[in-house]
Amino acid sequence: MLVALGVLRRCSTNVVPAVSCLLSRQKHTLPDLPYDYGALQPHISAEVMQLHHSKHHATYVNNLNIAEEKYAEALSKGDVTAQIALQPALKFNGGGHINHTIFWTNLSPNGGGEPEGELMDAIKRDFGSFEKFKEKITAVSVGVQGSGWGWLGFSKDYNRLQVVSCSNQDPLHGTTGLIPLLGIDVWEHAYYLQYKNVRPDYLKAVWNVINWENVTERYRAARK
């Protein structure tokens, strides 16, 4: 569901109160990182993290707020043409904000290794082994053409884990219906300053900082 339409439905089933809700809502803000920019070194450099968080993610947040303000104005005027024209900006910047907010929590300076307990059991059930899962999501992420994400998601319909990719900043749930558990950003801004054009080296390094506790928490929440 697109961002503004989701806000509209949460606000009210009536257009006028919904417009008021959109206009009075709090703006989206850039979330703080739960660690310092240099905490993931040497696997992800402080320079990459600082630019990625304070510049790229901040731009998505800023542009999302602008797009939502314009959408609220178009909604209040009954300008359907403008509403439709704003949908790509809402999807792109809203997805960028959602995806990165998940990504930062998926990483940790105390990460790496393998998951335990119920998540590991599910990975073995659905992929055969942790190594096979790791190989699959790495291959999917390497294979993203241009910019995008590799994802581990959970299907409530089938009660199974799935690995998929999404282009650009398309949000996983809105695009596939899967609940996001682990996202791997393979836009060049996530790694180019450190790993140049060798995406596989970045993907090899990122496993050292995956926060399996966070991924497990998301798995438990998704199953409820």
From TrEMBL:
Gene Ontology MF: a single term: superoxide dismutase activity
UniProt-annotated location(s): Mitochondrion matrix
Domain Manganese/iron superoxide dismutase N-terminal, residue spans: 27-108
Positions of the Manganese/iron superoxide dismutase C-terminal domain: 115-218
Superkingdom field: Eukaryota
Record keyword rRNA-binding present: no
Binding residues for Mn(2+): 52, 100, 185, 189
Keyword presence, Cell membrane: no
UniProt KW keywords: Manganese, Metal-binding, Mitochondrion, Nitration, Oxidoreductase
Enzyme Commission numbers on file: 1.15.1.1
Known cofactor(s): Mn(2+)
Predominant place of localization: mitochondrion
Function text: Destroys superoxide anion radicals which are normally produced within the cells and which are toxic to biological systems. Destroys radicals which are normally produced within the cells and which are toxic to biological systems.
Self-association state and partner proteins as the record states: Homotetramer.
Similarity comment text for this entry: Belongs to the iron/manganese superoxide dismutase family.
Protein known as: Superoxide dismutase
Organism from which the protein derives: Protopterus annectens (African lungfish)
